[in-house]
TrEMBL record:
<keyword id="KW-0832">Ubl conjugation</keyword>
<dbReference type="InterPro" id="IPR036317">
    <property type="entry name" value="Cullin_homology_sf"/>
</dbReference>
<dbReference type="InterPro" id="IPR059120">
    <property type="entry name" value="Cullin-like_AB"/>
</dbReference>
<dbReference type="InterPro" id="IPR016159">
    <property type="entry name" value="Cullin_repeat-like_dom_sf"/>
</dbReference>
<dbReference type="InterPro" id="IPR045093">
    <property type="entry name" value="Cullin"/>
</dbReference>
<dbReference type="GO" id="GO:0031625">
    <property type="term" value="F:ubiquitin protein ligase binding"/>
</dbReference>
<dbReference type="Pfam" id="PF00888">
    <property type="entry name" value="Cullin"/>
</dbReference>
<comment type="similarity">
    <text>Belongs to the cullin family.</text>
</comment>
<keyword id="KW-1017">Isopeptide bond</keyword>
<dbReference type="GO" id="GO:0006511">
    <property type="term" value="P:ubiquitin-dependent protein catabolic process"/>
</dbReference>
<dbReference type="Pfam" id="PF26557">
    <property type="entry name" value="Cullin_AB"/>
</dbReference>
<dbReference type="InterPro" id="IPR036388">
    <property type="entry name" value="WH-like_DNA-bd_sf"/>
</dbReference>
<dbReference type="Pfam" id="PF10557">
    <property type="entry name" value="Cullin_Nedd8"/>
</dbReference>
<keyword id="KW-0833">Ubl conjugation pathway</keyword>
<dbReference type="InterPro" id="IPR016158">
    <property type="entry name" value="Cullin_homology"/>
</dbReference>
<dbReference type="InterPro" id="IPR001373">
    <property type="entry name" value="Cullin_N"/>
</dbReference>
<dbReference type="InterPro" id="IPR036390">
    <property type="entry name" value="WH_DNA-bd_sf"/>
</dbReference>
Length: 733
């Protein structure tokens, strides 16, 4: 193939100039101006938008963009001034309707004009930094209509008047209001805010200030809160219907300030209907409304919380210091639990389970429960009552609920070691008398205490259960070894208790009947023969007995009595009449126990197997006692309890307190030594602080006692004072 010959092309300008008609711009603008007039006059149907677009395009192309733009401004301004006159002339309620209609017309016209001048909008406007056509139309509307001195004030007054009328119960045209406020928003956020929102908020503040004052003078707290809530909801609804969404936070803030924040103190303290009355009367709905309204304002919830805390502390203080309430420990604790349940329910239902309110409730309970130093004893007595009889026939789940509630009160105690002392005593009595309602419930309680306070707290309690199990095995072994010797004599059931685990006190000797003494000695010989290095001490004050008794007319009963009561009754096998002194001498039972024992046998109606002369409720040392032949009962088995104070007497209380204080000393000393071992040198105040921190889960140590224990440790050369600084203590390794 032969190579093709290359050709070079050259583009040259026209040989002649293209001349534009000097009057072209003017003629074209007249066509476009006429079209704009027709659009505003609603005669756009006869226009050729394609031809108009081409004319505008050519003007811009031929560098007449400035003429086109300025002509547009002039023409639109003229039309808007005419529109302003029309709006100004509208009377009464027609004013907003005319404004809305003209706004709609202007927007339609603006859309058509923008379509015609689209090329100018895309090229001339940005390159010459002009305002786009649509935005220009809005600005001209703002300046010539909205900011017209005859329209601006009238528009604001009309809008505010309509809102006021709606607030006072009238029905207004919300659709029209929405269109007008949307127009203001479309004109720019500053127009909406300056021309409407700011005055609207000022007027609203004034309105709600007056209304709240009026309401608070004539309404109770609950009704006032309902009105405030309704007003708040109305304003939020108003915003959703015809105001800018951003106005919601502002207008609700106004309502909150004027109707809630300014009247908080008066509302919560309102006589006969304030917060305290709501709490007392369980007004969950009103309380919930107060919580939801007050949480919207600064310091609102803290105001409710402070009043609730003050009320709780005052009520609790009255409860724990009321002498009438202290007579019945079970009722005392039950009232505390009811009070806790009541306020837990309020916090759950009305206060949205708010943790800060729960904390306030807890701190209040901790405050007033510890005002009464008998609270640990009473809580233990409550558990004792429930685990003896109060939980019979109750499901396992319900038992757990009761125990969990008790543990909740236990956590508030500062002297948990005092509770432990009493609980150990009460548990011992339940186990030894076989009166516990359920071993599972007993173990569940111990597990809860162990979880709360650690193994050391419950080790002795668990030891008590171990002793009970071991005792059963021991008794089986004893009777197996005595099989050939058992006859019609008394049957013995012994619980062997480890000294360190049980709260046993040194028991005064009691003269057991000869029949019983024989079998007791057999058991002693068996036990000491099978266990080396042990010593047995009979705790006759803790035992029980079942004895068969025959009364007049051959009536037979089986009496369930204490060991002391058995010793007394067995004396009447050989005597019809015995004086108090004779009984005391024969049994050697301590006087206080003997009087309670005789009181139970002779003074309790329906259980009086003995008669007393003279008849009275109390036992005197010159009283005489007779076997009551005339005793009758519809039951074969008759249980005769011991008349005993449910609570400790003052001497017993003092003795328990002393034992607690003695038990605390080694714990405080151990804590001091632990701290000083790790820190080596420490000042007095720091030792007190750290000891308190370490021991507060069991009790709050007294700083005076801590100081005495430090002195004791210095005497025993565990610590010494620093020679350079006497306020410092040094650990001696």
């Amino acid at each position: 193939m032969s190579a093709q010959k290359k050709r070079n092309f050259k583009i040259e300008a026209f040989k002649h100039r293209v001349e534009v008609d000097p009057k072209y711009a003017e003629k074209t603008w007249k066509i476009l101006e006429h079209a704009i007039h027709e659009i505003y006059n609603h005669n756009a149907s006869g226009l050729s938008f394609e031809e108009l677009y081409r004319n505008a395009y050519n003007m811009v192309l031929h560098k007449y963009g400035e003429k086109l733009y300025s002509g547009l401004v002039t023409t639109m301004t003229w039309h808007l001034k005419e529109i302003a006159k029309s709006i100004e002339a509208a009377q009464g309620g027609l004013f907003l309707e005319e404004l809305n209609r003209k706004w709609g017309d202007h927007n339609k016209a603006l859309q058509m004009i923008r379509d015609i001048l689209m090329y100018m909008d895309r090229t001339f406007v940005p390159s010459n930094r002009k305002t786009p056509v649509h935005e220009l139309g809005l600005n001209l509307w703002r300046d010539n209509i909205i900011h017209s001195h005859k329209i601006q004030t009238r528009l604001l007054d009309t809008l505010l008047d309509l809102i006021h009328r709606e607030r006072t119960g009238e029905v207004i045209n919300r659709g029209l209001m929405r269109n007008i406020t949307k127009m203001l928003m479309d004109l720019g956020s500053s127009v909406y805010q300056e021309d409407f929102e700011r005055p609207f908020l000022e007027v609203s503040a004034s309105f709600y200030s007056g209304e709240s004052q009026q309401f608070i003078e004539c309404c109770d707290c609950g009704d006032y809160l309902k009105k405030a809530e309704r007003r708040l909801n109305e304003e939020m609804e108003r915003v959703s219907h015809y105001l800018d969404a951003k106005s919601e936070a502002k207008i609700t803030s106004v309502v909150e300030k004027e109707m809630i924040a300014n009247h908080m103190q008066r509302l919560v303290h309102m006589e006969n209907s304030g917060l305290v009355n709501m709490l007392v009367d369980d007004k969950y709905e009103d309380l919930s409304r107060m919580y939801n309204l007050f949480r919207r304002v600064p310091e609102g919830l803290s105001t409710i919380r402070d009043v609730m805390t003050s009320h709780l502390r005052e009520t609790g203080k009255q409860l724990v210091s009321d002498p009438e309430r202290l007579r019945d420990p079970v009722d005392f604790v039950q009232r505390l639990l009811d009070m806790k349940d009541k306020h837990d329910k309020i916090i759950s239902i009305a206060f949205n389970n708010d943790k800060t309110f729960q904390n306030a409730l807890n701190s209040s309970f901790e405050y007033f429960i510890n005002l009464n130093n008998r609270s640990p004893e009473f809580i233990s007595l409550y558990v004792d009552d429930k685990l003896r009889k109060g939980l019979k026939g109750v499901t396992e789940e319900d038992v757990e609920v009761v125990l969990d509630k008790v543990m909740m009160l236990f956590r508030y105690l500062q002297e948990k070691d005092v509770f432990e002392k009493y609980y150990k005593q009460h548990l011992a009595k339940r186990l030894l008398s076989g009166k516990t309602v359920s071993d599972d419930a007993e173990r569940s309680m111990i597990v809860k205490l162990k979880t709360e306070c650690g193994y050391q707290f419950t080790s002795k309690l668990e030891g008590m259960f171990t002793d009970m199990r071991t005792s059963q095995d021991t008794m089986q072994g004893f009777y197996a070894s005595q099989y050939s010797e058992t006859g019609d004599g008394p049957t013995l059931a012994v619980q062997v208790l480890t000294t360190g685990s049980w709260p046993t006190q040194p028991s005064a000797p009691c003269n057991l009947p000869a029949e019983i003494l024989g079998v007791c000695e057999k058991f002693r010989a068996y036990y000491l023969g099978t266990h080396t290095g042990r010593r047995l001490t009979w705790q006759t004050n803790m035992g029980t007995a079942d004895i068969k008794a025959t009364f007049g007319k051959g009536q037979k009963h089986e009496l369930n009595v204490s060991t002391y009561q058995m010793c007394v009754l067995m004396l009447f096998n050989s005597a019809d009449r015995l004086s108090y002194k004779e009984i005391e001498q024969a049994t050697e039972i301590p006087a206080a126990d003997l009087k309670r024992c005789l009181q139970s046998l002779a003074c309790v109606k329906g259980k009086n197997v003995l008669r007393k002369e003279p008849m009275s409720k109390d036992i005197a040392e010159d009283d005489a006692f007779y076997f009551n032949d005339k005793f009758t009962s519809k039951f074969i088995k008759v249980k005769i309890g011991t008349v005993v104070a449910q609570k400790e007497s003052e001497p017993e209380k003092h003795e328990t307190r002393q034992r607690v204080e003695e038990d605390r000393k080694p714990q405080i000393e151990a804590a001091i030594v632990r701290i000083m071992k790790s820190r080596r040198v420490l000042d007095h105040n720091s030792i007190v602080t750290e000891v308190t921190t370490q021991l507060q889960s069991r009790f709050l140590p007294n700083p005076v006692v801590i100081k005495k224990r430090i002195e004791s440790l210095i005497e025993r050369e565990f610590l010494e004072r620093d020679k350079a600084d006497r306020k410092l203590y040094r650990y001696l390794a």
